[in-house]
Design brief:
Blueprint: E1 2-4, E2 10-16, E3 21-33, E4 38-40, E5 61-65, E6 71-72, E7 76-80, E8 85-91, E9 102-112, E10 121-122, E11 130-131
Antiparallel strand pairs: 1-9, 2-8, 3-4, 3-7, 3-9, 5-6, 5-8, 10-11
């Protein structure tokens, strides 16, 4: 799925329940200041300013489950859900300022139910780490970098 830099929280369409493990992989480039030619990958800018969520890198890809506490995703994240809700993703830039942002992230999301047995499949080709997660629910489209 594609997460745009110029929008606040974007619904993934994936409902999460307690005990589910979520694996998220991301790649791409985006900017909160394209006129200044300041771009980052999903890990964001550690020393950047302008953040919607103060404990997450500026410009980083972040997520939340329902109305839960936001968490940093970066390029590779594993989260063990403790609450119910839809998975949302966004750039960490003050949401009042996102309209002038540019770029996007291509995100792959894997879910593993707590009660199901683990199956060995692999992540997309750009990753060599073996996976114990099921088939991805959302896969990346070709990346169009600026």
């Amino acid at each position: 799925m594609t997460i745009q830099a110029n929008q606040p929280w974007q619904a993934s369409g994936i409902q999460v329940t307690p005990g589910v493990t979520i694996k998220i992989l991301a790649l791409g480039k985006w900017s909160q200041a394209p006129a200044l030619n300041v771009w980052s990958g999903p890990e964001g800018l550690p020393n950047g300013s302008g953040k919607e969520v103060p404990w997450i890198n500026s410009n980083a890809l972040m997520g939340k489950i329902g109305e839960g506490k936001p968490f940093e995703i970066g390029t590779d994240c594993e989260v063990h859900a403790t609450g119910n809700g839809e998975l949302y993703l966004a750039i960490n830039d003050p949401f009042d300022w996102v309209k002038d942002n540019s770029g996007s992230m291509q995100v792959t999301i894997y879910l593993q139910e707590a009660s199901s047995s683990l199956t060995a499949t692999s992540f997309p080709e750009e990753r060599s780490t073996p996976s114990t997660f099921s088939t991805p629910l959302a896969t990346p489209a070709p990346v169009g970098l600026p």
